[in-house]
Amino acid sequence: MKKSTKPLRFILVGIANTAIDFIVLLSLTTFGLPLVVANFISTSVALTFSFFANRSFTFGSTGKKRSQAVRFLLVTLVGLWVLQPIVLVLAVPALEGMLSREASIVVAKLIATVVSMVWNYLLYDSLVFRKPQR
Q1: Is there a contact between 88 and 107 (Cβ–Cβ < 8 Å)?
Q2: Domain limits, the chain
Q3: pLDDT of amino acid 134
Q4: pTM of the prediction?
Q5: 68 in Cβ contact with 61 (< 8 Å)
Q6: What percent of the chain has pLDDT over 70?
Q7: Between 109 and 131, whose confidence is greater?
Protein backbone atom coordinates (compact mmCIF):
# COMPACT_ATOMS: atom_id res chain seq x y z
CA MET A 1 0.00 0.00 0.00
CA LYS A 2 1.30 3.45 -0.89
CA LYS A 3 2.36 5.43 2.14
CA SER A 4 0.81 8.54 0.59
CA THR A 5 -2.71 7.02 0.61
CA LYS A 6 -2.71 6.18 4.33
CA PRO A 7 -3.76 9.64 5.52
CA LEU A 8 -6.66 9.76 3.04
CA ARG A 9 -7.77 6.25 3.98
CA PHE A 10 -7.50 7.15 7.67
CA ILE A 11 -9.67 10.21 7.09
CA LEU A 12 -12.32 8.15 5.27
CA VAL A 13 -12.41 5.58 8.07
CA GLY A 14 -12.46 8.43 10.56
CA ILE A 15 -15.47 10.03 8.88
CA ALA A 16 -17.41 6.76 9.02
CA ASN A 17 -16.25 6.07 12.56
CA THR A 18 -17.15 9.60 13.68
CA ALA A 19 -20.61 9.34 12.14
CA ILE A 20 -21.22 6.13 14.09
CA ASP A 21 -19.90 7.76 17.27
CA PHE A 22 -21.99 10.95 16.88
CA ILE A 23 -25.22 9.16 16.05
CA VAL A 24 -24.93 6.90 19.08
CA LEU A 25 -23.81 9.77 21.37
CA LEU A 26 -26.63 12.10 20.36
CA SER A 27 -29.21 9.31 20.53
CA LEU A 28 -28.16 8.34 24.04
CA THR A 29 -28.00 11.92 25.36
CA THR A 30 -31.43 12.59 23.84
CA PHE A 31 -32.76 9.69 25.92
CA GLY A 32 -31.27 11.27 29.05
CA LEU A 33 -28.03 9.36 29.55
CA PRO A 34 -25.30 11.49 31.16
CA LEU A 35 -22.78 12.88 28.67
CA VAL A 36 -19.70 10.98 29.84
CA VAL A 37 -21.61 7.66 30.05
CA ALA A 38 -23.11 8.22 26.59
CA ASN A 39 -19.65 9.05 25.24
CA PHE A 40 -18.22 5.85 26.75
CA ILE A 41 -20.88 3.77 24.99
CA SER A 42 -20.71 5.60 21.65
CA THR A 43 -16.95 5.35 21.47
CA SER A 44 -17.06 1.67 22.37
CA VAL A 45 -19.38 0.94 19.46
CA ALA A 46 -17.20 2.93 17.07
CA LEU A 47 -14.04 1.29 18.44
CA THR A 48 -14.83 -2.13 17.00
CA PHE A 49 -15.49 -0.72 13.56
CA SER A 50 -12.33 1.39 13.73
CA PHE A 51 -9.96 -1.48 14.52
CA PHE A 52 -10.99 -3.66 11.61
CA ALA A 53 -11.33 -0.80 9.10
CA ASN A 54 -7.99 0.74 9.99
CA ARG A 55 -6.18 -2.59 10.15
CA SER A 56 -7.27 -3.72 6.71
CA PHE A 57 -8.25 -0.62 4.73
CA THR A 58 -6.02 2.14 6.10
CA PHE A 59 -2.79 0.37 6.97
CA GLY A 60 -3.14 -2.92 5.05
CA SER A 61 -1.71 -4.77 7.99
CA THR A 62 -1.10 -8.50 8.08
CA GLY A 63 0.61 -8.53 11.45
CA LYS A 64 -0.47 -10.47 14.51
CA LYS A 65 -4.05 -9.44 15.14
CA ARG A 66 -3.97 -10.07 18.89
CA SER A 67 -0.92 -7.92 19.65
CA GLN A 68 -2.19 -5.23 17.29
CA ALA A 69 -5.56 -5.27 19.04
CA VAL A 70 -3.91 -4.77 22.44
CA ARG A 71 -1.81 -1.85 21.18
CA PHE A 72 -4.80 -0.44 19.31
CA LEU A 73 -6.93 -0.56 22.44
CA LEU A 74 -4.30 1.13 24.57
CA VAL A 75 -3.74 3.95 22.09
CA THR A 76 -7.41 4.39 21.26
CA LEU A 77 -8.70 4.21 24.83
CA VAL A 78 -6.35 6.96 25.95
CA GLY A 79 -7.70 9.10 23.11
CA LEU A 80 -11.33 8.20 23.70
CA TRP A 81 -11.62 7.85 27.43
CA VAL A 82 -8.94 10.25 28.64
CA LEU A 83 -8.45 12.96 26.00
CA GLN A 84 -12.05 13.21 24.76
CA PRO A 85 -13.74 13.42 28.18
CA ILE A 86 -11.27 16.10 29.26
CA VAL A 87 -12.11 18.16 26.17
CA LEU A 88 -15.87 17.55 26.61
CA VAL A 89 -15.90 18.48 30.29
CA LEU A 90 -13.93 21.66 29.61
CA ALA A 91 -15.54 22.70 26.32
CA VAL A 92 -19.27 22.06 26.88
CA PRO A 93 -19.64 24.51 29.79
CA ALA A 94 -17.51 27.10 27.97
CA LEU A 95 -19.69 26.84 24.86
CA GLU A 96 -23.09 26.74 26.61
CA GLY A 97 -23.11 30.51 27.10
CA MET A 98 -22.98 30.94 23.32
CA LEU A 99 -24.82 27.83 22.10
CA SER A 100 -27.62 25.51 23.17
CA ARG A 101 -26.67 22.44 25.20
CA GLU A 102 -27.04 20.18 22.15
CA ALA A 103 -24.95 22.45 19.91
CA SER A 104 -22.34 22.75 22.67
CA ILE A 105 -22.09 18.96 22.84
CA VAL A 106 -21.67 18.70 19.06
CA VAL A 107 -18.97 21.40 18.85
CA ALA A 108 -17.12 20.03 21.88
CA LYS A 109 -17.30 16.52 20.43
CA LEU A 110 -15.88 17.79 17.12
CA ILE A 111 -12.94 19.38 18.96
CA ALA A 112 -12.42 16.23 21.05
CA THR A 113 -12.58 14.08 17.92
CA VAL A 114 -9.90 16.09 16.13
CA VAL A 115 -7.60 15.84 19.16
CA SER A 116 -8.02 12.07 19.40
CA MET A 117 -7.77 11.51 15.63
CA VAL A 118 -4.36 13.21 15.43
CA TRP A 119 -3.20 11.18 18.44
CA ASN A 120 -4.51 7.95 16.89
CA TYR A 121 -3.03 8.39 13.41
CA LEU A 122 0.43 9.14 14.70
CA LEU A 123 0.48 6.17 17.05
CA TYR A 124 -1.34 3.71 14.77
CA ASP A 125 1.23 4.37 12.06
CA SER A 126 4.30 4.27 14.30
CA LEU A 127 3.26 1.69 16.91
CA VAL A 128 0.08 -0.29 16.28
CA PHE A 129 0.19 -1.23 12.58
CA ARG A 130 3.85 -0.58 11.86
CA LYS A 131 5.56 -2.68 9.24
CA PRO A 132 8.03 -5.19 10.71
CA GLN A 133 11.70 -4.18 10.45
CA ARG A 134 13.75 -6.32 8.06
Answers
A1: no
A2: 3-128
A3: 64
A4: 0.72
A5: yes
A6: 98
A7: 109
